[in-house]
Amino acid sequence: MADGAYWWQLLVLAYRGIRAQRMRAFLSAFGVTVGIAAVLAILAIGEGAREQVLKQVEELGMNGILVRSAALENDPAARRPAGPGTLRLADADRLERSSPQIEAVAPLSESWTTAAAGDREVRARRVGTAPAIVVANKLSLAVGRFLAADDSRQRRAVCVLGADVAADLFRFTSPVGRRVRIGQRSFQVIGVLAPRARLTGDRAIARGHDVNRDAYVPLEAVAPSGEMRDGWPLTGISILVRDRSSVTGMAGLVRSVLERTHRGRRDYEVVVPLELLEQRRRTQRTLGAVLAGIAALSLLVGGVGIMNIMLATVMERTREIGVRRAVGATSHDIALQFLAESGMLTFLGGASGLVLGVSAALALRFLGGWPVRITFSTAAGVLAISVVSGLVFGLYPALKAAAADPIEALRYE
Amino acid sequence: MSGPPLAALHRVHKSYRVGAEPLEVLKGVSLAVGEGEFVAIMGPSGAGKSTLLHILAGLERPTQGDVRFGDVSLGGLDDRSLARLRNREVGFVFQAFHLIPRLSVLENVEVPLLYARLPLAESRRRALEAIESVGLAARRLHAPAELSGGERQRAAIARALVNDPALILADEPTGNLDAKTGNEVMEILARLNDQRKAIVVVTHNDAVSAFARRKLSLEDGTFVG
User: How many whole angstroms separate alpha carbon B81 and alpha carbon B69?
Assistant: First the structure.
């Protein structure tokens, strides 16, 4: 109980010491404030970016593997079906049979075109595919039904529209049962997908589908006539692996199967979101180390300022140190008094840095639209770090104060 | 007098190194202060009076010789125990008052109680009591700079007696005061002596030493006469 009173009084003493020199305290703690604010803002941005990547990978599916035709990928002007040597439906069939770990394989034959209904016309991506796509790409339906095996067998001219395409073409009526002209052909709408949020630009981990602008039709309905089924060209193959732990292994299998059938020609690429995520994590770890370095440096600069000011404070209060020693303070008591003061100084500096950093992060979010995030542990962590830096950099001045000879301190002018 | 004296010096030497030459300030001084005594140590400046008082208070260690407080020899005490002795057993009054400028009278008087690890309420009660006993209750919230010299010294005396020590040491307590206020301060010390507190006062002022019942002269590091 009495010890609680002792600590409390040390804190009160520290606070009054700081208040007595408000301007000086502000200036000396300013370095800590700016350092902490910068660190916090950077952490908030990093945390926000990481969360977004996670969300996106979740959407792409951590269990997914995407094979893309490289000929189409490398030539953005080419929106026609891929030329000879790229992916074929036979590749998809072979991959489907390659391992029981593969849950679903969906062939993709994508092409940008227009979709029209009545007097409305919008850009859309026609995706010729198989019913398995609903599993492989984790699509969810808003209304109607999805493509069925029977639609493929019968080569039915039916389609399932992405949410944006449906909304643009049919503002006030239900699309199901209506007809839509996709490219040169007419299709009957059998279902509409639920809208899905999507990330774009630098923050996207991999180019995914903008599902909302897709129109899914049976591959059989858009396949070139007069060509063998095995030879139907594809722009991509979407694969879902049963178990996350075997994604890397399956990616290896997919690569080796394609390498064999394509005889070593790299006219395709294999995109594995899980691997991309791991890559992103490695980059972030490096970035984290750099940030930690900057943080340490800024705290070092701030801390040296604190040490400097505490040395001046100790010097000014030499007489007070003598008096306190004379009336019963141990050198330990004296050291604690100055440590409490430097710790409180950097705590106040860190707390203002926290306010400043949070404000900066919020400004970035609301004015710049950045995905920032500040966790409680981040805030508590920076405060703890600021106090610790005060104790570390206040140690030398405090020990110097403690080592002063009482009599000489009393005579100090 | 029976039993050991309250505080005693036995053949105490103290020398300082000034440049290359050692300067011997005390040359084998012995002194015993009994309970309730009032001792004045006189002598010209530079005679070693202050050093003697510091050694008696446990603020400085002798180069040679023994200092005892009751049964305890200070030579064997560490920093912590010496601080405890200064805190509980001795009250020190300085010529220059040595109040902490940014603290009020009340807070200055509470300083020794902080190191006695007293609970806050008890600390406040005792400090107010000490301030009242020197007649400064109305001034308790003032800063030292707002007080007269006599008031400052009374505040310092309140601080010296707040932990109820058996021995009060005063180093030229009236040196910075005019004759009238000096006399008032000595009256307070005399009253404390009446309450069985032992007082040792260092001075070169006869008006001050007149309050003491025992007078000693220190010259060039030894007692004379």
Answer: 12
